[in-house]
Design brief:
This protein is an alpha+beta fold. The protein folds into two domains: 132 residues, no CATH class; 37 residues, no CATH class. It contains four helices and nine strands. The strands form two sheets. Strands 2, 3, 4, 5, 6, 7 and 8 form a seven-stranded mixed beta sheet that branches. A hairpin with a 2-residue loop joins strand 5 and strand 6. The protein starts with 9 loop residues before the first strand and ends in a 7-residue tail after the last helix.
């Protein structure tokens, strides 16, 4: 096995011996080397630990990998910009890794299906894709977050129900100035 093919994301499938029906469980904790998601919005941050519970099964055309991953997320509320922390995502995934020279490998484009290389499975792309798709497109600190006041930028949660800004239609502003009295000031 080459040095570049070792690591916490790599699973050796040789013990399945390409015999359909054999399987084994894999449980690992993997540290994220680069953030998963959109930085500044919502991510599984660098250094976070992802808990993997995976079943690898030998099937006729390759190795079927199915399992789940649990990871902490952090980011920023899209309405009020408060930090989002102490939350987790759980994702489930299933991926077929085709054996070299199998009918599946020969009849699919290279980017359509994962392939076994030296009887090794790389879980990182599978988990990364599942995690990124599970992240909320519009992250919120809480479901009923009211966001920010468009006029002053204050958080509605802190401003209270009586908060408002008086706005004058610019077409009437000249009349307002013209008829303003001392008691209006």
């Amino acid at each position: 096995m080459s040095e570049q093919r070792k690591g916490p994301w790599i699973v050796d499938t040789r013990e399945l011996a390409r015999r359909a029906g054999l399987s084994r469980d894999v449980h690992r904790t993997v540290t994220v080397a680069a953030p998963l998601g959109v930085e500044g919005v919502i991510t599984v941050p660098t250094g976070a630990e992802i808990e993997l519970d995976v079943l690898i099964e030998s099937v006729v055309e390759g190795v079927l990998v199915s399992g789940s991953a649990h990871a902490p997320i952090q980011g920023e509320c899209s309405r009020c910009l408060d930090p989002i922390e102490d939350r987790e995502i759980e994702v489930e995934f299933t991926e077929l890794f085709a054996y070299p020279d199998s009918a599946t490998e020969q009849t699919t484009d290279e980017d359509e299906i994962a392939r076994l290389v030296d009887d090794l499975v790389d879980l990182e792309p599978v988990v990364r894709d599942a995690a990124v798709l599970a992240l909320p497109a519009v992250p919120l600190c809480r479901e009923d977050c009211a966001g920010l006041c468009v006029d002053c930028g204050g958080k509605w949660a802190d401003l209270g129900p009586d908060h408002r800004h008086e706005t004058i239609d610019p077409r009437w502003a000249a009349l307002t100035e013209r008829f303003r009295t001392d008691r209006d000031v």
